[in-house]
Amino acid sequence: MRVGILGGGQLARMMAAAGIELGMEFVVLDPSPDACAGRFAELVTAAWQDATGAERLLACDRLTCDFENVPAEVLDALSASLPVRPGPAAFAAAQDRLVEKRLFRELGIPVPDFFAIESRPDLLAALEQIGLPAVLKTRRMGYDGKGQAVLRSSEDLEPAWQALGGQPLILEAWVPFEHECAITAVRSSGGEIRHYPLSWTVHQDGILRLALAPAPVDEAVAAQAREYVDRLLERLDYVGCLTLELFAGPFGLMANEFAPRVHNSAHWTIEGSVTSQFENHLRAVCDLPLGATDMLGHALMFNWIGAMPDPGLLLSVPGLAWHDYGKQARPGRKLGHATLLAAHPAGLNEAVRAMRPLLDTQTASLLTGAITPEG
Ligand code: AMP
């Protein structure tokens, strides 16, 4: 089976690493000549709309994406020739925060209050309704905290408007969450759904820093998250992995956004689950039976952002799994991740304590905060 992937970043790279073991071959299309999936797959360097690139993709048996902002119309055109999974409808919804929030609302999945913003008067009128704090976001092309501004006082309005005005925006009420969490589920072409356990996620500057799984929440909360993600999967007649990101607090769960692809918050599944999200995504895309999603232990995954630490030091930590994406270092760029796996939460605590002296202070305090949330 030859699988084409639009987008050649670390998600495509980890998909290819999993799929090669299933006997699959990969072609990745990416506008950048140094896309890191190129080490595991045939890399076609071309713009999304480029006909030459499309020709190479059309020689594949299935298409999927590692990037949610591949233009939905490109996926639409390709889907006339071969199965594109998940399909263009999921991308059209995930690419526009307004369409996405309206879909959540229609499916009975709670969301913060929101308003479409086209002009300054729209913004002022919406703020009258929502109050401060609030979050102003671009409707399109926002990811990793890009294209958004938190409005805490009236003084924040003008700088936010200067930075973001002139494009379609959405204003959302600020959610006073206690934790963020994410649930990844996979749906086969025959409609079978399997869930990974809910993860706790921690973001800094809008970028995911770590994920702890399973999230230490009541089963009722986890069941609610599974029900919400099922509604999305069914409505979109979805095939593959999907991640729903949620806010958790005294109000229950509220949806923030969904990603129509494999997701950073489920990277722990490589070591922590019987079948990783990457393998299960490909199984679904290629009409193979889904694999078990049972956990093999308690997992803590954390990202290396901006710089890779010295593996010579950290690989001495027992049970630490190392993933270096082979990318050029740049501030704010995800370059790799590591996962700790332990039989009990106490085992994770021990491993984090052992690692602390080997970590930069910011990562050390993030990890400590994750395993001892009350402290
Ligand atoms: P997003 O790009 O929408 O995923 O936002 C990135 C991060 O900003 C989220 O993971 C939250 O930490 C924070 N955030 C986004 N929207 C809200 C909101 N309405 N209320 C509180 N925090 C938010």
The radius of gyration over CA amounts to 20 Å
Decide which structural class fits the backbone: alpha+beta
Mean pLDDT figure: 94
- Uncertain stretches of 5 or more adjacent residues: none
Please estimate the helix content. 25-40%
**Small molecules bound in the structure, each named once:** adenosine monophosphate
What is the CATH superfamily label of the largest domain?
ATP-grasp fold, B domain
- Give the tally of β-strands: 17
- What is the N-to-C order of secondary-structure elements (H for helix, E for strand)? EHEEHEHHHEHEEHEEEEEHEEHHEHEEHH
- Bin the strand percentage: 25-35%
What is the CA–CA distance across the termini?
Answer: 50 Å
Instruction: Tell me what the CATH architecture of the largest domain is.
Output: 2-Layer Sandwich
The tally of structural domains comes to 3
CATH class of the largest domain: Alpha Beta
Specify the number of helices.
13
Q: Can you tell me the CATH topology of the largest domain?
A: D-amino Acid Aminotransferase, Chain A, domain 1
